[in-house]
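Class, carefully examine what follows:
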Amino acid sequence: MHFRSTNPSLSRSFLTMILAFLTISALGQNNFAPQSASDFEAAAKSATSAREAGRAEAIQDYVRALELNPRWEEGWWYLGTMFYDTDRYSEAIPAFQKLVELVPTAGPAWEFLGLCEFETKDYANALEHLKKGRALGDADDPDTARVANYHLALLLIRTGAFDEASAQLSAAVGHSEMPAQIKNALALSMLRVPLLPKEIDPSQDALIAAAGEAAAAIAENNSAKALAAFPSLLKDYPAIPYLHYAYGKALASAGRDEEALKQQREETNISPNSSSPWIEISQLELHLQRPQEAMHAAEEAVQRAPESAAAHKTLADTLQALGKKEKAATELALAEKLAPEKNQPEERLAQLYSNHAGASSHANIQAAERSASDPASSNFSVLSSRAATAQAAGNSDQAIQNYQRALQLRPEWDDGRWSLAMLLYSAGHYPEAIIELKLWVERHPNFGPAWAVMGLCEFETKDYKNALVHLQRGEQLGLGGNPQADGLARYHLAMLENQIGQFDSAMETLIPGTRSGKIAKEIQIALGMALLHMPALPDQLDPSQTALAESAGEIAALLQNSKYDQAFPKLQALLQQHPSVPFLHYAYGTALSALSQFDDAETQLRAELQISPRSELPYISLASLQLKQYRATEALASAEQAVQLAPDSAESHYVLGRANLELNHNEQAVHELELASNLAPGSPEVHFNLAKAYAKVRQPEKAEQERAIFARLNSAAEQRRSHSGNQAYAGSHDAVELTPARSEKENAVPQHP
């Protein structure tokens, strides 16, 4: 997995630092003869010109110049970074090794050496050299620092240094939204999984993604968000090791000791050989002034980890509290002797999460057994030819068998594995297809169609959480298939987004399917469910609701394509038939507001308030409408009601912040907009208004920082809008875009490039 800055090797700050180490010229350092000096000067000039012009021969020119002057630090730097930028890591390593030999205090050189070693799986040296580079510093190059911190954290996780890894990951985050890679790594640290992200079985991706949200909140010191995340996480994954432990620690940090104790005791049942929950229990009991119970827990901890400094230190604390000073001193001395704490990654967790566990399918084992009894089957060329012929003839079963036999002989045959996975998918053999796709994405982690097909298979096996994660990943990487395959993946993604209540995202996902004229019935129903905020899959709808959802979907498609003259009569007719259906008045009100028909919009939103009194959405839209009409006092009341109903909603805090800003309640505005920023760090609007609020309270540095974040996020948003097309209709108080279609699966198989 790559997580690196945009061309970090061209760090001018580091180059400046390198040059500062040179007190005399490269020629003078080596006492060249005049001819040699002249040759080197010409070679160095040629290398520099080739690099600056982006010519391929730059590497050869640098090699030639360095043969003439092996002590040319700048040359080694550029040679190493050019190899690094072209993913030639094994060739970059000797260049950086030579550079750190010449300039041993150059932190970025050690970092790049460690990054190259990471990519070549020399993890022991990568860990050592990344640590050294971070200790020496990065010459004020934040991009390279974040990349190095991230990879160092991954290696610390791999060795079981989870607390240290979490600290490194927190340092890798800038002032923008936390990347998914950082969240996933924080999840591995929280769950104590001693593996690299690429070693995680995709079947664990939904768990890792969900745990990453809680872990990110902890890293950001957002206690409220963290505590809100754990209950649903534990409901879905009640027996996952260290989830109760992490929740217990979060509860303890919030001063909820008795609840924390309950969680730690749950963890002792799930992780009976771990000392960690017993240490936490002892400390909690001690804090609750129950030293006898604390000592019992500490003794349990020591019994499970007699070599743990933390366990002995905890026992010493409890003995001290009980007045047993001599025994306490003995335990404390033992703790000091055992310090620092040794990392002890658990093999059971590596096995639980590893993508190599059970990688061979039953079908592949059977194929191997058949191969042993068929002499011709030991010939890869024969088998691959048979497979292709059978596939071309439409004989799927025979093709599958021959692909499986051929892959037993040559597991790295990518084309064959892709063909096998697609045949299994098309034949409805979804579990077997998932196994092959897992092997595929291990070798091709950035190939979007493979993740999308895996998500489709998981949808069919009702593994909806992983299906959502993998369909989203496929969309982010690029679905890249034919239009039918693209539409099929997006339709399933939208269904899953509806199921978990992400209705605006579902509508955005379905937009392309509304642009080609006639809309497929399935898309129409999914759109209608999003418009009416129905958190279910289409086949879970009551039959009496299907016609309603289909009609609502037709209206949603018209709204998304700005066909208001056609949408409004249908909306009015549907409201006459179903005046009490939740979110139908809301949809009409937000559409009217988008056209600045504020009085009629307010009438519809207030009607929705009567139907959906527990939803914050009509209050948010009403507050936004009132702000547009310069009715800030009324907007404040609406926004306060929204926050009361949804204290974890970024939109609620955003409109409340804006209302306070309009009323010159500047301190309150800053508070609310900061909360909105924490909940939605990727929103340009939030950062724009937060910059205004900081300016009003005379914090110009923070205001400038927010303006810079806004400019970057807004530019990215403009590019997305330009790519997908602007939409006038707003599904809430902010504009919402839509996105695709469904077709028959057998005509929708993505092709391997």
The radius of gyration is 30 Å. The domain at 598-724 is CATH 1.25.40.10 (Serine Threonine Protein Phosphatase 5, Tetratricopeptide repeat).
